[in-house]
Amino acid sequence: MGINLMELLVDNRQHKYKIEERLIRLLERAALVCLAYEGWDLDYEISLSLVDDDENKELNKIYRGINCPTDVLSFPLVEGNQIIDIEEKLLGDIVISVEKVALQAKKYNHSFGREMIFLLVHSMFHLMGYDHDTKESAKDMRAREETVLSFLNL
After folding, report:
1. Whole-model pTM?
2. How does pLDDT run across 103-146, given as a tens digit for each residue?
3. Strand, coil or helix: what is 123?
């Protein structure tokens, strides 16, 4: 009997940027570190969709009522560490605009990979119930993100 570890299910639906397998492995590691840092079980499945700005904009409009693209969308399937009653142990869905990743990496003067990992980590904390809707919650979430990024040497 083995231990089931977290699985990151990646659906690359954009075609402008090449996503290296090495980056996918780093994203998996980042998701696992987020779960471990929070003391969550390590056997969740997480869906990651890599999309262009057009698809991201459409999803943002449908689910948030905002008619413009954003960098990352999070759709949690867990509430208060309580799993929605389905067969798989799904944490939720993450949708990242790869076009935004490239723009923000340039804007913040760091690598494409580092920006992609940051957005995944940011979204993982949303999936685990954190938000940044107040000054205090934003500070708390940012501290968690920075701690995980430091564990990843980023």
Report:
1. 0.92
2. 999 999 999 999 999 999 999 999 999 999 999 999 999 999 99
3. helix
Work out the burial of residue 75: count CB atoms within 10 Å of its CB; fewer than 13 is exposed, 13-18 middle, 19 or more buried: middle
- CATH number for the domain harbouring residue 37: 3.40.390.30
Structural domain includes residue 109: yes
Q: Residue 96's CB: how many other CB atoms inside 10 A?
A: 25
Q: What residue numbers bound the domain in which 37 lies?
A: 7-151
Round to whole Å and give the CA distance between 145 and 100: 19
User: How many whole angstroms separate alpha carbon 121 and alpha carbon 107?
Assistant: 19
Calculate the alpha carbon distances from 16 to 19, 27, 51, 93, 109 in Å: 10, 19, 10, 22, 20
